Every structure is written in C-alpha cells, then in structure tokens.
Amino acid sequence: MRTAKRPAVWACCVWLCGASPVAAQTSSRILPANLLRDLPNGGNVFAVVETTEPEIVTDRFNSGGLNGGTPSRVGGLFSSWTQTRHRIGDVDVASAVDGTPLIFPRIAWWDSVAVSTTMTSPELDAPELTLSLRPRTGTARWTGDVEAVASRRPLIGSSPAHPPPIARLDAWTTASGVVSGPLTQRLKLAFGGAWSRSAVSERASAGRVNESTAAFAHITRAMSPTDTWSGLAIAERSTRESALHVQSTWARAPDAGLQWRVYGGYTHSNRVPLPLQVDVIERLTHGPVPAVVAHRARLERLWTAGVRLRSRPRGSRHGFAAGGDVSRAGVTEPPMDAHDVHETVDGRPARIWAYGRLRTGSRRVATTLSGHVDYHLSLTTRATLAAGARYEQVRGRAALGTSGISWNSVLPAARLTWELGTPLNLTLMTGVRRTANRLMLELLTVGDPASPAADVYRWDALTDARGPLVARVGPGTGGDARLSALDPDLHRSTIDEFAIGLSAKPRAGLTLAVSGVARQQSNLVGLVNAGLSPGAFREFTIRDDNADLVKPDDDQDLPVYDRLPSSFAQDRYLLTNHDDHASMGAVVLSAEASTPRLYLFIGATASAAVGPGASRGFRAIENDQDALGERTINPNAGTHVRGRLFADRAYTVKWTTVYRFPRDVRLGVIARYQDGQPFTRMVVVPDLNQGAEVIQAFPRGRSRFAFTGTLDVRLQKEIKLGHARLGLILDVYNVPGMRKETEEYVVTGPRFRESTAVQPPRAAHLGLRLSF
Predict the structure, then answer these.
(1) CA-CA distance, 333 to 450, in Å (whole number)?
(2) Can you list the positions of beta strands (E) in 564-645?
(3) How many Å apart are CA 137 and CA 150, to the nearest integer?
(4) Pairing relationship of beta strands 280-282 and 339-345 according to DSSP bridges
(5) Structure pTM?
(6) What pLDDT digit, counting tens, does each position of 628-665 carry?
(7) For tag attachment on the chain, is the N or C end more exposed, with fewer CB atoms within 10 Å?
C-alpha cells in the first residue's frame, strides 16, 4: 500500500516547493544541486548565475569569495535590478527598497536554482527576472555534506598597483554543512549551518573584513498520502546585517482532481551599510549625493500569504491554474543628525549639501493584493494554448506622508506551445504578456517629512565655505510640504513583451534552442522640478568632439545650462510619469548536452536595451531606467539621456562544462565572455552659478569598457572512507591571470579612457568535503 501511494506524496513534495506544471511551462533554466557543487561557485549563487547564464549581469565582479555574504544587484536582458524577484518556493524575499534578496542564498542549502527571464506565467508577479530557490528536503535515510574551503595570500596572484584590481581577495575561509534524514516514518528534516570570514580590498582601499554565520532548517511531514506540510527557517548574522526568514506550506496533490497549496512567509532584515570612507563625495566615482545619502541603516519586513489551485481532469482538453496572494513590505529608517556633505566633480569643489536633522525615523509600507487565473486548452495532441490574467491592487504610503500611491492593474498573458515533431523533435513556443513594476519603497520617500532633505550651497573653493544657496532638494519635505509631493495621478510603469522560440531535441541528452524577445516599458516614473520655469537657466553651447576624437565629422555644439540666481531655492519636486520609454530586443542561443560522464551548456546572446538612465554615469545606480535620479530635474542631466542601459552587454557567450573522469575525478569549468559595460565620455563644465557640472557627450553605449573574460575551474577527487566519501577540492579563478580593465577614466582630457580598475587577480582555493 505504501509503495502504491509514494508517487502521489512525491508529487505533492515537488509541487510544495514551487515546481508546479505552470512554472514548468515558463522559459526557466534549472541548475540542480549536483551541478552547482561540481562548479567553481565561491559559495555564492550570484557568482554562478552571472557566469553561467548568458542573460544575467550583476553590479559586482563576482569571483571566488569576493562577495561572500553580500547580495548583488542582478539584472538581465533590459531588466532593472530594482525589479528582480528572489523567491524561496512561493515566497518572495526581494527587498522592496533595492531589489536585493534579504536572505543571502548560500549554495549548500538549495536543491536547485531556477532562472526565469522571459514569458513567466501570471502566477508570478515578476516583471522581468526571477531567481527561484528550492530548499533541500529531508531524505529517506540520514545523509550529509560538510565542506570547508580556504584561500590565503600564497594562493592569490599578484596584482598591479596602477591600475588596481576592482576587488582583491586577501583571505577567505568558509565552512558549511547540511544533514538530512527521517525523524520518523513521515517526518523528515534537513538542517545545516554556515560560517565564513573574508578580507577583501576594493581598488586601492584597505582590506575590509566581513564575518557571517547562518543556520538553516527545513522540515516536512507527510500528513496523508496526498497532503504534505513543510516549514522552513533561515537565520543569518554578519558584520553589518542580521536576517530571519520563516515560511510554511500545506499542499494537497492527489493523482486526479483539484490540487492546492496554501503558504505564508515572513522575512526580517536589519542592514547597516558600510560608512563612506572619505569626507568628500566625488560625483564621478561615488555617484549622485542623494543616492549615497539614501543608502543608510534600515529595518525591512516582508509578509506574504497565498493560495494556489490547479486542476486538469483526466481525459480533458481543459485545465486551469489559479491563486491569490497578499503581501506587505515595510521599511523603517532611523532618525538622522544634521550634517554637511561636500561634493566634488572630477576633484573640483562643487557643492555643499546641508542635510537637516530628522527627529523621527521614516516608516513606509506597501501592500499588494493579487489574484490570477491561467487557463490551458489542448488545441490538438501537439498544440497547447495557455491564456490568463493577473489582477493586482497596490497601495503604499509613508507613515507621516500626506498622500500615497494607489494602483489597480490587469495584466494579461497568452502562450502557445506547439510540438512540431519531425526527426529533430522541434517545439515552437510563442507568447505575449504584460507585466507591471513592483512599488518600490524608495518612491514613497517623496513627500515624506521623515526622509532626507537638504539645502544645497555652491562650495566656495577660495574660502572652503558655503557660497550662495543654490537649490533645495528632497526627497523629503524638509519641513516644507511644498518641496516634494506625489502626483495623485501617478501611473504604474508597465512592460509589454513578445517572445518566440524554437527548441530541438535531435537525440537523447541534447537540446538546442533559439529564441527572440522584444519588450517595451511605458509610464516611466521620475521627479520633475515644477518650481522652475523654462527661463530658470541660461543656455549656451561649447564645442565638443563627440564620439570620434580624431575626425571632425561628428563634432557638435554641446548644450550647457547655467542656473540663474533668480531661480535659486525655488525648487518644487513632483514624482510623476514622463514621456519616455525603454525598449529591448534580443536573440538568445543555447545548446545543452548531457551524458553519463559529460555535462555541457553553451549560451549566447545578442541584445540591445535602450532607455533613459536615472542619472549621469555608467553604474547600476545611475544607468537604470527605474531608479530615482536626476534625469528630469536637472537639464544638464537630460543631454544624451537615452542610451544603452546598465544590464546591456550587447554580446555574451558563456560555457559551462562538467566532466566525470574515471576514479572519481571531476572537472568543472566555467568560461565567460561578455561585452564591456556601456558608458559615455563626460565633459566637465566649471564655474557655473550652481557649481561645476558634468554633461554626457554622447549616448551611453557608443563606447564600452573592455570585454569581461573569465575562466574558472574546479577539480575534485573523491576517496572512499567506508560508507563515507572524502572530496579534495581545488578551485582556481581567473586561470589565465587576465588583467582586463573593468573601468576607465571617462572625463574629457588626456586621461580619457585610461584604465582605473582591472579584474581581480588569479586566486586558488583549497577545500575538503565529507559526504556520508
């Protein structure tokens, strides 16, 4: 009897962790645990997905051990890093402040990592990229893995002093373990812990030490042959962050009839950012002053509850999936003392930002109520049509704000899958969908009396003191409700997508695929300075070489805007929509082969993502269409504002290989090529009434930094020790010792395009793994 019922219980466990048939129809690529452990991973999910997935880009140079315990901003194929979803099963753990996960995803704890970039079903509230984690579950007998890896200076290659590496690993030690097995016949447990300590130098700065510990427990109970309950808990603590995540699911998966699951989750994260290491903020290297000041201590909480239903009666051509969710994201930021921030532009004194004291902390909350339905119809034995829609009601406000944001959205989607047959086993997939941006809590700082506001003075270089008051800035009100406000008619930013793909399986273990994706994002959100009239600036031009510094064919008159003293301190900011859009087109090629000894995956992209960056510059916080910035409040930031976005790398090729040699020797190799980061030459204009400014000379992407090329290797040898196995591990990152530049000096002058940072040097790690 038990044997006959096991398939139903197994299916329930799979569906419990989010691997539903609906999700299986999306264009997800799944990285299973056995593949992750055979690759050089540095214990970091972000490092693996960026180096293996052709569509993915992060804001950090992820190499073994460099960013252990530090989440990355992740985007890909046009997607804004602010909108990336990080899910554990059904529960989203992405920050509603900056889009990074509130729980750092350590490699050892997951059965699989799924990456979805296009055509997700209405079940998911993801506008673009989703990283889905399925936790390890208890096994039928007690098993375990304990791993320790370390690296020290003798194993790390030398690096040049000029230009310095963008990051350098000085020392790294990590240990993790997971044990799983049955507590009773029906109750199973997987639990583990992790500890790491790293010393990392960034550019020429002194080394920074980060130590973190974490614990994980996942318990499942078969309540009946069809019902399963699970509970998951993760706790983390590091030098500047502590986090707790708990979630639970009850699922019913009978062989026939209605399947369902209900779930809930809670995530708590307390983050304290690293203090700025300088007394002065350099605009070209640190970014816009408001973005730097906004990166302060915060406490975030996420609550989620939902239900999923699925039914497809046997013998029927029809089926459906439906569900609903309610989620609440909140952030609390502490009071802030009054302080001055000095801003330089390419070393020139520019402005002094006098931030006022905030006597109370800022509290902001966003609540989302959603429901979806996805209807499936078998048109023929080979063709299936899926059509559905998602409804979302979004509400958000700051505790002390006088207004909030309210959106109601209907988001349709349709997908067609057609198995064409033929000797190649061809399958065609095409579809359209509309998605919408999550309400980021950053937007609710506008008009919030408890959010930062400053008086901006010109910095008098002769006296090293405040000059005239030039402007007043938010996003807070600074005690004046007229300074910043939310547009009561603010529309939600939406993305329309069309995708078409063709896959072939000419033989067992071999899959070839090609797909095309096109997206357009509308209703972009940004600040406008409603207090300034068109006559608030004097416009003049300067002669500039444009993109070609040698030939005069493209020379231009570059506009400059000098703020008139009569407009000083007349600023009034409104968060509203503006008439601009972002668009993307991409072709993605892939080949995946698997045999008993060999696993091989090759992925390549050719893409163009064009849109307005939030602020002047090339970094993630600047060159992103969904970040709050200066593009619509400073006319000097509006010149050549449209260009290739941060996540755009034009052409990428990524190769992943694992080969299992005889005598329990395994070799895992990741090779990556991706085009350089798009940027533009900056022209510094000194002696303006408002202080020195920079202007973009041409659209971002007409110039790029050097390509990124990496080759990382993991070599393992296993030795039998009775019923256990001891694994010897050697990881080598940047095997060729390449020193390709990662950043350049971007200002007009003799140093233009001089390398300012190169990739990390070669680093080797040694480790042991005990499996039993």
Answers:
(1) 9
(2) 573-577, 582-594, 598-612, 642-644
(3) 27
(4) parallel
(5) 0.91
(6) 999 999 999 999 999 999 999 999 999 999 999 999 99
(7) N
